[in-house]
Inverse folding.
């Protein structure tokens, strides 16, 4: 992610109350980095949003990988369609998670 300053006309103000200790920390960090507390909060929110997006992507990747491994193992073992369905349901039951 580039460290570009957002277009001011595309931004909206947002007020938030923080404990004094956090405010002092933000003010200190802003001064040390030549920026403002608002910029630090904005970047933190963007990092958090990106983290959530990455987390969702990793979960989807894990699910796809798991399905491929399951299908490969079924093929190697030579399970019929019925046996594959039974194995799939048993696996879901054991893992207690959705493999959708």
């Amino acid at each position: 992610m580039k460290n570009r300053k957002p277009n001011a006309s595309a931004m909206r103000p947002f007020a938030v109350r923080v404990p004094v200790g956090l405010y002092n920390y933000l003010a200190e960090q802003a001064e040390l980095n030549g920026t403002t507390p608002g910029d630090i909060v904005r970047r933190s929110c963007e990092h958090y949003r990106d983290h959530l997006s990455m987390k969702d992507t990793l979960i989807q990747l894990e699910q796809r990988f798991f399905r491929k491994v399951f299908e490969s193992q079924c093929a190697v073992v030579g399970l019929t369609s019925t046996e594959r369905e039974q194995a799939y349901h048993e696996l879901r039951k054991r893992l207690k998670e959705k493999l959708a």
